[in-house]
């Protein structure tokens, strides 16, 4: 009879951001272990709050399924002698499986014939499987940071307080740190402090709800949103949307209880970003907006406990915010006393990176690089704005406000630039050079901010790679992956045409004085190549989300120096692949490439000589090719890669006839080499769009 | 509740649990953690349960008595429980109830906070405890001290006394806190704030402080060689305070700063090691006492701390990996 399994780890308050990944780990390990043991089960659900991580598995079978496996023994030659009698080897094999030699069979494998046996493997009982699985799961959570406690070796996000492992109504014994499993759980820390004995796994969610805990994260979130919306309405406003904050607050409480508070309206003259940040970053309060989208002098705090008298705890919430806003106002007033331009020099005392120097040095480098990019992208008209905005772009890092709220970098730069009488375009560029701040964020709306942002990020990428601190695995302390993606998004979004490798060279040239003493590890690629390879990796990941990876690789293989062109090539090629007539074209190209690869290295370079052609098909192909080459060239220059592909596709009949009728590997050396040179040129024509040999034919046919 | 009653209530609560109540350490320190009652005693296998008020000097926070929140010197109520009892959160919440913060009336919450002291080579994980959104306590499970693993793990509770008192008395400014009936914090400490801030921010003599730093550092190292870790640690603390004064005065450049911190940390490490050697030599006498506070955690997995320390060779502290560099604006 199928039973349910409940696993609950009770812990002291687990950091909000750890909860979801931890539940994924628990669920994954349990599911894998059950699958390995062939233990059938129904739905797997997870529950999580700051004080608990739980998994409920419905309808677990009583035991793993039995299975018959074939086990291979020694080779047939070794197992039986010439008379067909079993040797020692066969006997030993049979003995190891507790079988008689007669029970052995023979199986033919690609390596030859082997002695084999069919062995029945019994499924283990569910409780034994699950006891091991739970032990592995609770010890196998990969927390971002974990700690030891008491006198135990075990690590967990925070100390473990209780452990429930129930299979049906049976407790399974598991130890985690200094805790033994049982059936006792706990409700809300203050509203239901008494221990609760769980009868059956299926009761879990309802039992906790009675004990004032909404254990299901989705339900708790929905309840939070509903209560927030109602509270906002009652306060005469609407909630300022902030999905990240909703997620975070959901996992900071077991039972959300919003309270509406207010602050002195005179603070509304502070930049709204400052007010929002003051409320959100330390206090996790939600901001409220009026009908026009302007901030109201109100907030919603979310309590974990529905306190007896909301006014009493509101007094606390409001007081904390009052102190914070007073600090914010102090910074805002103090900061504006010094013009942003006067702060630039102070950046010379802030280290950006030990080997690469101070922020001032970085600013000077990327200002120069931004100017270079303005020329390269045909935005020379922006040079003056770029120059001024780049100079000021990091000056807000040494203001009191950004010292307190690093998240406001850029925003404060914009505000202080405006306050100091800088042109609007400069103020905007200071703000926009940080855009996009993440994968979902908006791009800069103007060139100046976009170009400075590109330059700043290129300087970081090239500098960090050049000193040998490239990201490895999960470690990416300078957020270079994000920086690289931002560069790609800006260049494509704003349609900038320039040579990426030339920009990398320029960035490295500007960095050169800092790199004099850097020694490269033996065998390590030059920084330029590393950076470009890094771009290739990001492009593959980014474009692979919407296009087949082999097609992306085919496009990248022939270059991405002009990112915009590379993207257009991909967009032209991608819809063609998978078309019925594409596969033969790819096959034809592969034949070309194969011959060139095999034979081409022995052939001296040089032009094809049309006079040396002897056969009609090769002459025809050459005529068609010459015409196509010119048209492809025209199309490529006009960014019409779909058109270029059509021209290339048009060559296919001539190519086919050529291969059918012409013997490339002719006896005559000159003749042979001339043909190989010709094929090399055809290959090069294809290569203007993509390296077709990278495209997988079997998939292409589908 | 008056400021004084707050202190007395907390002392009584923790004394009732079995803590010894010591007096404040009599040297300038930046935090209760730096007193040897915490930093040194968190090391090694011996139990240790202590509560004390520690006046904590933060020269860079001096605001001439003009800021309602920031002080040159504030007071921490420091509790160390080693090993951390299984019910340490409950014991802590009970102390809040006793000073008048009932969790049914206030939103009391444990919010993630990691603690690290680069000058002590110490770090731990825990929370800041919120009362209606205000941080009233730092709650940390020590993981390393002076570069050594903490086994068993100690829990450190640091109550911000001024903050708690402001909350309890519902006043905006720390200077309006009533110390006892009729006497305010202002009368007791305002002049001290003014003068100490003036000294730290304008009047201190950097040349002298640099010379003192060097001398204290040298003396610390010399005493370590003489196997006197306790006086050596006093000199490590003096070094740290001299550094804080220089830092507040803006006398240390960004590039030098990291180096000064390292010099302080290196001394703290030497003292930690010297202390452990001394305790080992004495046979860890406190392990022979029945001294416990709260519910003791059982050992079910792994080996107990007493076994762990037998395996530690005392002259190479475990180097914690350098904190990863984080670039702002990148």
What does the model show?
- The complex is a heterodimer of chains A (702) and B (330).
- Helices cover 49% and strands 13% of the residues of chain A.
- By secondary structure, chain A is α+β, with helices and mostly antiparallel strands.
- Chain A folds into five domains: 147 residues, Alpha-Beta Plaits (2-Layer Sandwich); 52 residues, no CATH class; 120 residues, no CATH class; 199 residues, Hypothetical protein af1432, CATH 1.10.3210; 135 residues, Isoleucyl-tRNA Synthetase, Domain 1 (Orthogonal Bundle).
- In chain A, strand 17 and strand 18 form a beta hairpin.
- In chain A, helix 1 packs antiparallel against helix 4, helix 11 runs antiparallel to helix 12 and helix 14 packs antiparallel against helix 15.
- The model of chain A has no long low-confidence stretch (mean pLDDT 91).
- Chain B is of the alpha+beta class.
- Chain B is 40% helix and 20% strand.
- Chain B has nine helices and ten strands.
- In chain B, strands 1, 2, 3, 4, 5, 6, 7 and 8 form an eight-stranded mixed beta sheet that branches. Chain B has a two-stranded antiparallel ribbon with strand order 9-10.
- In chain B, strand 1, helix 2 and strand 2 form a beta-alpha-beta unit.
- The interface between A and B is large, with 70 and 53 residues.
- Chain B: It is found in: Cytoplasm.
- Chain B: It catalyses: tRNA(Gly) + glycine + ATP = glycyl-tRNA(Gly) + AMP + diphosphate.
- Chain B: Belongs to the class-II aminoacyl-tRNA synthetase family.
- Chain B: It comes from Corallococcus praedator.
């Amino acid at each position: 009879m199928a039973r349910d399994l409940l696993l609950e780890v009770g812990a002291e308050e687990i950091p909000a951001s750890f909860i979801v990944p931890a539940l994924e780990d628990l669920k994954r390990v349990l599911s894998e272990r059950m699958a390995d043991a062939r233990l059938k089960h129904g739905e797997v659900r997870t529950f999580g709050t700051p004080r608990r991580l739980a998994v409920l598995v419905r309808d677990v079978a009583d035991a793993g399924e039995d299975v018959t496996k074939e086990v291979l023994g020694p080779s047939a030659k070794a197992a039986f002698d010439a008379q067909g009698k079993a040797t020692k080897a066969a006997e030993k094999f049979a003995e190891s499986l507790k079988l008689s030699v007669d029970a052995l069979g023979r199986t033919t494998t690609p390596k030859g014939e082997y002695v084999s046996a069919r062995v029945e493997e019994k499924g283990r009982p569910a409780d034994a499987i699950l006891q091991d699985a739970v032990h592995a799961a609770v010890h196998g959570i990969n927390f971002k940071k974990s700690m030891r406690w008491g006198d135990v070796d075990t690590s967990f996000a925070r100390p473990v307080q209780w452990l429930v492992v129930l299979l049906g109504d049976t407790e399974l014994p598991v130890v985690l740190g200094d805790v033994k499993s049982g059936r006792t759980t706990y409700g809300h820390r203050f509203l239901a402090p008494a221990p609760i004995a769980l009868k059956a796994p299926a009761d879990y969610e309802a039992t906790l709800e009675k004990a004032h805990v909404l254990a299901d994260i989705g339900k708790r979130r929905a309840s939070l949103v509903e209560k927030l919306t109602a509270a906002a309405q009652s306060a005469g406003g609407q909630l300022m949307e902030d999905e990240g904050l909703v997620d975070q607050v959901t996992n900071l409480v077991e039972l959300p209880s919003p309270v509406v508070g207010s602050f002195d309206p005179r603070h509304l003259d502070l930049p709204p970003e400052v007010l929002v940040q003051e409320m959100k970053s330390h206090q996790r309060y939600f901001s409220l907006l009026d009908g026009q989208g302007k901030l109201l002098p109100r907030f919603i705090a979310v309590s974990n406990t529905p306190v007896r008298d909301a006014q009493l705890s509101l007094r606390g919430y409001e007081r904390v915010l009052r102190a914070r806003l007073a600090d914010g106002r102090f910074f805002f007033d103090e900061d504006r006393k010094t013009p942003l331009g006067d702060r630039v020099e102070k950046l010379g005392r802030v280290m950006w990176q030990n080997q690469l120097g101070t922020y001032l040095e970085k600013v000077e480098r990327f200002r120069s690089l931004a100017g270079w990019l303005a020329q390269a992208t045909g935005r020379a008209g922006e040079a003056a704005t770029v120059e001024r905005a780049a100079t000021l772009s990091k000056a807000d890092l040494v203001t009191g406000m950004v010292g307190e709220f690093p998240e406001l970098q850029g925003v404060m730069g914009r505000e202080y630039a405006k306050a100091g009488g800088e042109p609007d375009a400069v103020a905007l560029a200071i703000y926009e050079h940080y855009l996009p701040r993440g994968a979902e964020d908006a791009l800069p709306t103007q060139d100046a901010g976009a170009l400075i942002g590109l330059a700043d990020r290129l300087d970081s990428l090239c500098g960090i790679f050049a000193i040998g601190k490239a990201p490895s695995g999960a470690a990416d302390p300078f957020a270079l992956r994000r920086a690289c993606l931002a560069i790609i998004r800006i260049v494509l979004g704003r349609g900038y045409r320039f040579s990426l490798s030339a920009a990398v060279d320029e960035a490295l040239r500007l960095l050169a004085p800092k790199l004099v003493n850097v020694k490269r590890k033996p065998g390590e690629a030059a920084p330029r190549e590393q950076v470009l390879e890094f771009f290739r990796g990001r492009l593959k990941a980014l474009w692979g989300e919407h296009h087949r990876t082999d097609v992306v690789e085919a496009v990248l293989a022939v270059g991405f120096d002009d990112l915009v062109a590379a993207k257009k090539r991909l967009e032209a090629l991608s819809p063609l692949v998978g078309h019925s007539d594409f596969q033969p074209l790819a096959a034809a190209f592969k034949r070309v490439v194969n011959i060139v690869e095999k034979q081409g290295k022995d052939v001296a370079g040089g032009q094809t000589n049309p006079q040396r052609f002897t056969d009609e098909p090769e002459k025809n192909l050459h005529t068609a090719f010459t015409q196509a080459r010119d048209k492809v060239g025209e199309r490529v220059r006009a960014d019409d890669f779909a058109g270029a592909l059509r021209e290339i596709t048009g060559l296919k009949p001539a190519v086919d006839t050529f291969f059918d009728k012409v013997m490339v590997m002719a006896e005559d050396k000159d003749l042979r080499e001339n043909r190989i040179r010709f094929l090399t040129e055809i290959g090069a024509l294809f290569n203007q769009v993509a390296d077709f040999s990278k495209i997988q034919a079997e998939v292409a046919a589908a | 509740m008056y400021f004084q009653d707050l202190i007395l209530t907390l002392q009584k609560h923790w004394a009732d649990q079995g803590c010894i109540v010591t007096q404040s350490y009599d040297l300038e320190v930046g935090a209760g953690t730096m007193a040897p009652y915490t930093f040194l005693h968190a090391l090694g296998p011996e139990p240790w349960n202590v509560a004390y008020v520690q006046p904590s000097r933060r020269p860079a926070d001096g605001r001439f008595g003009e800021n309602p929140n920031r002080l040159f010197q504030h007071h921490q109520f420091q509790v160390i429980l080693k090993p951390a009892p299984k019910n340490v959160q409950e014991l802590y919440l009970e102390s809040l109830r006793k000073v008048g913060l009932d969790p049914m009336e206030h939103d009391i919450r444990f919010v993630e906070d990691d603690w690290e002291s680069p000058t002590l080579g110490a770090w731990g994980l825990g929370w800041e405890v919120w009362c209606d959104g205000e941080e009233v306590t730092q709650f940390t499970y020590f993981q390393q001290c002076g570069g050594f693993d903490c086994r068993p793990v100690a829990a450190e509770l640091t109550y911000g006394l001024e903050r708690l008192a402001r909350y309890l008395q519902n006043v905006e400014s720390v200077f309006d806190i009533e110390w006892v009936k009729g006497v305010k914090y202002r009368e007791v400490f305002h002049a001290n704030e003014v003068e100490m801030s003036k000294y730290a921010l304008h009047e201190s003599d950097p040349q002298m402080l640099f010379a003192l730093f060097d001398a204290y550092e040298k003396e610390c190292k010399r005493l370590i060689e003489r196997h006197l870790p306790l006086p050596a640690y006093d000199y490590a603390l003096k070094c740290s305070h001299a550094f804080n004064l220089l830092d507040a005065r803006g006398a240390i450049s960004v590039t030098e700063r990291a180096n000064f911190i390292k010099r302080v940390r290196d001394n703290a490490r030497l003292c930690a090691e010297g202390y452990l050697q001394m305790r080992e030599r004495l046979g860890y006498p406190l392990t022979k006492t029945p001294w416990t506070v709260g519910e003791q955690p059982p050992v079910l997995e792994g080996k107990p701390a007493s076994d762990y320390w037998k395996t530690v060779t005392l002259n190479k502290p475990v180097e914690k990996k350098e904190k990863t560099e984080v670039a702002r604006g990148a």
